[in-house]
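Quick look at the format.
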Amino acid sequence: MTILYPVAANAQAALASPLGRAAREREARGVAGEAVAFVTEEVGALYATREAALDAYRGRLDDERTASKVQVAPEDRYLSLRAVVEGPAPAPPLQPSFAEGRRWPKPPAAPRSGFRLLVSYWRIGKAPAQAPKDQARTARRRQGAAPLSADEVRALARQPLRPVRPQQPLDIGLFEAPAPEAPHILIPDD
């Protein structure tokens, strides 16, 4: 069974009242009547614990707790939970202050963390920002490169890493030799 993702203009509409549901882009375009893009977005409040988030979305997420076991149908698995940290960037390392009889200053407040609902759906309209074709290290260092927008940086962070150049063949060790009948196999030569 395939997952049927909602077709909607935004994540809130995908949760509440989607135009329809589709597994593939072609089907989603037919439902929407215009271009669509597959996106995954956070929606809703930040819950302090996973249990609180599961209670808030009871029946819409798989729940393996013994008190409230729920298993969602395969076609309805477009929702998931993600652990998130909200707040300012981490502070730089603290330096000893030796002030007021204390060696270390008070640490900054810890950022809020919790769980937020993720919705995967077909968004109606133009596609989200695409990552540049180059990898981040190349895109930033290229001569005359324009600064990247926040959406482009997020897209770069989500794309898989690619090798800079093809991997070189492995070296044959001092005590290894290729097998005569199968040169792609190395045999220990002790």
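Next, a different chain entirely:
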Amino acid sequence: MVKRCLLLLIALSLMPTCKSNESSPPPPPPPTAQSITVNSSSDMLYIGIEETFTATATMSDGSTKAVTGGVWGGDNPSVATVEAGTGRVIIVGSGMVSIYVDYQGRRGAKVIRGLPNYQGTWVGSYYIVSCKSTGDYKSSNFCGSFPVNRVFPHNLSLTQDEDRVEGRFYLGTLGADASGPVQTDGQLQLTGAVKEGINTIEVGWTLQSKTAGRITGTLNQLWRATGYSGDGRLSCKIRDCDRTTILTTPTPPGMFLVPKPTLEDLIRALVGR
């Protein structure tokens, strides 16, 4: 009996043992960025604006997360400067710039247009660069009243919707509506015509605002009148033009109500007296 039990124990000891090979699956790899969207308040920003851009990453598991720790930059420093660590953007000029952020081997970018802010009330003056006249304008010594370098006042009251500007201009007390687009280089071309009685003065403005709150540029005037032959043409340059909250309301022009105003009447209107 003892011998039989001993043999049984030996047999049992020689039998293979079964151990579980089951183990927990390895954790999934952390999600990685698949695409990045750059966010800003608008794709058109005025010169002088400072804004901190943000970005959102779409991850490999379908989730989204705010980008932190990315490296920011821009491809046109003449339009915008960018702080690499914060995404703070300062618009410094007119034109197009791509603002981007690099994160987890991916790059997100957004194209921004920098442009001047022409909205507001502007007050300044311009001076005559050249004068040409024909017909009755020449015989009445039109250019004698507009000698080179003579200075006249002007006002602008403008509203702006992105890159479209409209409003009203005044040459002395003579006013008219005007509108025009802002070009990619920041230049604004406004056109309008003063119409009083028999007189029409077509005015074309070419404006630039490279410094916030200040305008430079030129304006051309084409003078015509019913019953007058020929015309008068003035080329002018803006001497100064600054944005201000104060606008003197021009006196409604009335000197053009006579059939044929004198040249002195026209000059008086431009001077604003």
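The chain has two domains: 32-115, 120-271.

See the schema section for token definitions.
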